[in-house]
Write a structure and sequence with these properties.
The chain is an alpha+beta fold and 198 residues long. It folds into 2 domains: 144 residues, no CATH class; 44 residues. It has 5 helices and 8 strands, in the order E-E-H-H-E-E-E-E-E-H-H-E-H. Strands 1-2-3-4-5 form a 5-stranded antiparallel β-sheet, covered by helices on one side. It has a 3-stranded antiparallel β-sheet with strand order 6-7-8, with helices on one face. The longest helix has 31 residues.
Length: 198
């Protein structure tokens, strides 16, 4: 399976408070976590290594290309060994730490819609893009300029390299958003009933 609840698989259990309890408790159950695909990163590392070795034997640009491809091989090997969750869906929202420019934490109340793009990416439509951009570091803001040129918003999730299909990831994200909206309606309804009570 590409999805593992907290406490399963790698043993990662999300953010914890001082007592050791999970701080970001999801919708009545454990958070859903997506991890790196071992097959993807093992294949990628092997492929980059096979390209880097012959490049190192060629004069001119060969050594430079060997460093570039070798760097990719080492990066993918590091991802293969580091089994932290890359995408987490909880009651609080979405935490995307898949790539260096990933948006990080996006709370459900910030999200208007979630949809799959034609390129297989996942676009998160925000209620206030300006507020979202303001809290990003300057380094993470840079790729957003390029995204805007292609017509994308600032909150774009890249599911490539994750266990589970893009369809599966989108489905779980949409389920989380729908659950949040349902709970918000229930909460507002309960408040109205309390206000009408004598």
């Amino acid at each position: 399976m590409g999805i593992e609840p907290d406490g399963a698989g790698s043993g990662n259990t999300g953010d914890r408070n001082e007592s050791g309890a999970v701080a970001d408790a999801p919708h009545g159950s454990d958070a859903i976590e997506f991890y790196d695909s071992r097959l993807f990163f093992a294949s990628y590392s092997a492929g980059m290594t096979m390209v880097a070795i012959p490049c190192a034997l060629v004069s001119g640009w060969g050594p430079i290309l060997a460093i570039i491809f070798g760097g990719h091989a080492l990066w993918s090997l590091r991802r293969l060994l580091d089994r932290r969750p890359r995408l987490e869906i909880s009651a609080v929202g979405i935490r995307d730490e898949n790539l260096w420019y990933s948006p990080g934490m996006i709370r459900w109340e910030e999200i208007r819609d979630i949809r799959r793009t034609r390129l297989g990416l996942i676009e998160v439509e925000l209620r206030d893009e300006g507020a979202f951009l303001d809290r990003l570091s300057p380094l993470r803001q840079l790729p957003r300029v390029k995204l805007a040129l292609f017509g994308f918003g600032p909150a774009l999730i890249t599911p490539w390299g994750l266990e589970g299909s893009t369809r599966e990831v989108v489905g779980k994200l949409q389920e989380g958003l729908e659950q949040h909206l349902l709970e918000s309606v229930r909460s507002e309804h309960a408040m109205l009933l309390e206000g009408d009570a004598p």
